[in-house]
Amino acid sequence: MGRKLNFVILSIIILICTFAATNYQELISSIDSGDTAWMLVSSAFVLLMTPGLSFFYGGMINKKNVISTMLQSFIALGVISVLWVFIGFSLSFGDSIGGIIGNPLTYFAFNNVGAEPNPNFSSTIPFLLFALFQLKFAIITPALITGSFAGRVRFRSYIFFMVLFSLFIYSPLAHMTWHPDGLFRNWGVLDFAGGTVVHMSAGFAALAGAVFLGKRKSTTNHQIHVPYIILGTSLLWFGWFGFNAGSAFGANSDAVIALANTNIASATAMLTWVFYERMVGRKMSAVGACIGAVVGLVAITPAAGFVNIGQSMFIGFFAAIISNWAINIKNESNIDDTLDVFPSHGVGGIVGMILTAVFASESGLIYGETTTFLYHLLALVITAVFCFGGSYLLYILVDVLVTMRVREDQEEIGLDLSQHGEEVK
Q1: Total domains, the chain
Q2: In a domain, 235, yes or no
Q3: How far apart are alpha carbons 210 and 282 in whole angstroms?
Q4: Can you give the residue range of the structural domain that contains 360?
Q5: Helix axes 76-83, 66-74, angle to 10 degrees
Q6: Angle at Cα 358 formed by Cα 353 and Cα 362, nearest 5°?
Q7: What is d(CA 151, CA 238) in angstroms, rounded to the nearest whole number?
């Protein structure tokens, strides 16, 4: 009965979108072909990050959970794409309701999302392209969370949580941060490409998930495929150029600055990580290099268009040290964040958010401006409480309706077989 109901609901959504969506055969004016071409490429870059994430996570988990872990990232491409068209985009970028959330009717089922530019968001590219670019951010955010509870969550329960998280956590945070009338944006909070919206939200939701679901039966991870981790990191690094430089919404100088800062911050963080590991007596591992690179990418994300090359190097260096410490602290605690999502993305996002307020051109703390810095701290506290507390409540709700954690026997044989009937040979 439940499976039939799910199919009926999906069918209704598709039918609504079919008849409600805007007709794109209209006369286009004021579109810049260069900006449009860059944003088309950037959208494709960012989409590639989610399959890259699946390889990154899949290489870190034990053999019996590889398929399930990779699929938890990959399935977001389908779930969030449909949800975004139906209502997610409107909640994120629709007419503001109190600076907190968008009106769900403004762009319901992509109505009024056409080929003409919307000057409130970007005046030189089709509004539809803006919506599709933002979709890729909405896709990867819940996928990031999955690393914290890999190996112990029921697949359909995770899909249910993903939908609720996107509607009630991601969309309000995106609206507050990026909508012209959003609360954080009107405070002057700077988030160039999603340090707050994507990485902090995912990080705190991951921490809440690890706390709620508890520890695995066996917490010993065997990194079964280091080449997968290297491949995943490479795809993430490549896609991150679209993630950050694409957030300039045009082929312009801001995009060039963001691209340069993205590369140098990641490179600096990677080198910092491996040499710091050697300094404290650990080996300079490939996995460490990959984690360091990702932490650098996370930390530079909110600052990418607001700082210079030297400052981006410092952000990468500092974030690598802090996240390395955070992982070691987590390993000594009772929190089973399987793939270190919070120490990497949550802590990396926090470092990036604070240092953005320190270094941001003309409005940062080093220029004698305290207002931006103080509002960043306030937004950080609000984001932490909202994302952790809100996500924890969503875990409780999902667990009441559809039990989230797999049975002990299912965890023992692995999620690949127990959830999907497949296995890595």
Answers
A1: 1
A2: yes
A3: 27
A4: 34-402
A5: 20
A6: 115
A7: 28
- Residue 419 within any structural domain of the chain: no
Cβ atoms of residues 109 and 20 within 8 Å = yes
Examine residue 136 and state whether it is found in any structural domain, yes or no: yes
Read off the tokens for 299: 């930390």
207 and 155 in contact (C-beta within 8 Å)?
no
Does residue 150 fall inside a structural domain?
yes
| The 3-state secondary structure of the chain, one letter per residue | CHHHHHHHHHHHHHHHHHHHCCCCCCCCCCCCHHHHHHHHHHHHHHHHHHHHHHHHHHCCCCHHHHHHHHHHHHCHHHHHHHHHHHHHHHHHHCCEECCCEECCCCCHHHCCCCCCCECCCECCCCHHHHHHHHHHHHHHHHHHHHHHCCCCECHHHHHHHHHHHHHHHHHHHHHHHHCCCCHHHHHCCCCCCCHHHHHHHHHHHHHHHHHHHCCCCCCCCCCCCHHHHHHHHHHHHHHHHHHHHHHHCCCCHHHHHHHHHHHHHHHHHHHHHHHHHHHCCCCCCHHHHHHHHHHHHHHHHHHCCCCCHHHHHHHHHHHHHHHHHHHHHHHCCCCCCCCCHHHHHHHHHHHHHHHHHHHCCCCCHHHCCCHHHHHHHHHHHHHHHHHHHHHHHHHHHHHHHCCCECCHHHHHHCHHHHHHCCCCC
Distance separating alpha carbons of residues 239 and 100, to the nearest angstrom: 29
We report the CATH number of the domain holding residue 366 as 1.10.3430.10
Asked whether the beta carbons of 106 and 17 are under 8 A apart, the reply is no
Q: Would you give per-residue pLDDT tens digits along the chain (425 residues)?
A: 556 666 666 666 666 655 555 554 444 557 999 999 999 999 999 999 999 999 999 999 988 999 999 999 999 999 999 999 999 999 999 999 999 999 999 999 999 999 999 999 999 999 999 999 999 999 999 999 999 999 999 999 999 999 999 999 999 999 999 999 999 999 999 999 999 999 999 999 999 999 999 998 876 656 678 999 999 999 999 999 999 999 999 999 999 999 999 999 999 999 999 999 999 999 999 999 999 999 999 999 999 999 999 999 999 999 999 999 999 999 999 999 999 999 999 999 999 999 999 999 989 999 999 999 999 999 999 999 999 999 999 999 999 999 999 999 999 999 999 999 998 87
- Name the one residue in this structure whose structure tokens are 């299912």: 410
